[in-house]
Design goal:
transmembrane, signal-anchor, 14 helices, glycoprotein, alpha/beta, single chain, EC 2.4.1.-
């Protein structure tokens, strides 16, 4: 970058003031995934309507909102989506919700289950203002349930108790909900979520979830030498063709989960991890220990993951070969952070159209 000519001090001062007071603040100087705070505002998203082929979920006009919510939640026609929600990743969450609605053929039949552990009122207001027609409910997740089970991982952001809330969805979501699609906050859909939600899980009661599998990945690397050198532990996968899967996109049968008490099974592995370190990577390995080799495989198009780069440097990555229905910025780098810092990766441009952040330059009303 060329230095500012000394003959133009006023011009330099103008650009300095402009940068300090008008440009969006970069969050590249810390490890936070967002510059969201209590002063952040978001634009209102457009309302999306069902196509003529969608089933109608009947409600009573005279019922209060809670009763209507209950009817939507328990309807067989409802598509259920679960996401965690916090102020750090709220910008990503808003973009994800918008992408789900925009590409759905039956957006009015989608119900969102948001799990949060703090700032509930603020988050509720934020979602309601940007999506005034959205059908959703916020559930409070008690961090103390899991905080004592968490072991430090390779990146501090992975140690947040809310990252483990996906293990407790069956305890939080109403019993009438049979199936839910769990989504991380750093992704966008470019296809109809109804297709993913309709994934067949088969007749085996032990098949609890579906997700894209990656059997070419080095599965052994997700566990420590301590794990593999222990005869009883290394036999965990002996009768399973265990492959890596990313827990940021899952179709979960909640009835089978509850019946098999899979939350307890995950917690048991976390308790063992506290006594003898058998993995390094946060909330993923317990899921692999319990489910790897026993899931329904979904086409890779439904989780083009790793776009955030690795957990150390967050370098740019390309898409995997093949079609795309969902783009997932898993890893250290988040698209909104890189865009704000004017150092985006090429694929971050695909996330930008779903960004609802209200900027000083926005011409939207």
């Amino acid at each position: 970058m060329k230095s500012t000519p000394k003959s133009k001090p006023l011009l330099f001062l103008f650009f300095l003031i402009f940068h300090l007071f008008f440009l969006p603040t970069s969050s590249s100087t810390n490890n936070n995934a967002s510059n969201s705070n209590s002063n952040t505002t978001f634009k209102e998203a457009p309302k999306f309507y069902n196509s003529q082929t969608c089933s109608t979920i009947t409600i009573d006009i005279d019922d209060n909102n809670n009763n209507n919510n209950e009817k939507y939640i328990c309807s067989e026609e409802t598509i259920h989506v679960a996401m965690t929600l916090d102020t750090t990743y709220i910008r990503g969450s808003m973009a994800a919700v918008l992408s789900v609605l925009q590409h759905s053929s039956c957006p009015e039949n989608i119900f969102f289950h948001f799990i949060c552990s703090s700032n509930t009122s603020l988050l509720n207001t934020t979602i309601s203002k940007s999506f005034p027609y959205l059908k959703f409910h916020l559930y409070n997740f008690d961090n103390s349930i899991v905080s004592g089970l968490i072991s430090t991982s390779i990146r501090s952001a992975l140690d947040c108790p809310l990252n483990y809330a996906r293990s407790y969805l069956a305890n939080l979501i109403p019993l009438c909900v049979k199936r839910v699609v769990y989504l991380d906050s750093d992704l966008i859909l470019v296809d109809d979520i109804a297709k993913l939600s309709a994934t067949e899980l088969g007749q085996n009661d032990n098949t609890v979830l579906a997700a894209p599998q990656y059997c070419n990945a080095n599965f052994t690397s997700y566990f420590t030498p301590t794990f593999w050198s222990n005869p009883s532990l290394s036999l965990t996968f002996s009768n399973r063709k265990a492959c890596y899967f990313n827990t940021g996109v899952m179709v979960i049968d909640l009835m089978r989960w509850r019946s098999g008490d899979y939350t307890t099974k995950i917690e048991e592995w976390m308790e063992l991890q506290k006594r003898m370190r058998i993995y390094e990577l946060g909330s993923l390995p317990p899921f692999l220990l319990v489910f790897a080799g026993n899931i329904v495989s979904v086409d890779h198009r439904w989780n083009q993951h790793g776009l955030g780069g690795d957990n150390f440097r967050g370098l740019c990555r390309d898409l995997h070969p093949g079609p795309v229905s969902l783009l997932h910025w898993s890893g250290k780098g988040k698209p909104w952070v890189r865009l704000d810092a004017n150092r985006p990766c090429p694929l971050d441009a695909l996330w930008a159209p779903y960004d609802l952040l209200q900027t000083p330059f926005s011409l939207d009303s």
